[in-house]
Amino acid sequence: MPQHDDPRPTEQQLEASEHTEKRSVAGETRYYVKDFEKHLRAWGHPNPDGLVSYFTPDGKFHAEGVEREHQLQMIGIIGASAV
Prior knowledge:
The protein is an alpha+beta fold. The protein has three helices and four strands, in the order H-E-E-H-E-E-H. A hairpin with a 5-residue loop joins strand 3 and strand 4 (61-63). The longest helix has 14 residues, at 68-81. It is globular.
């Protein structure tokens, strides 16, 4: 289980989250964030179209072109939705 200072969601949280969709890409399991563009628009991102993000089973978040603050917000949403 992650420590309090580790914001990464667990694989169980990613599996349970209504905000992620599990896919396999080149043999790697990824949990893509559903409606990611919608979240970015709500946060005022200047160009959210076509941006995608995903988590790996270890809870690491991958999102190019997204500020760290918004990455942390997304990590929080995923973690909170599975509690």
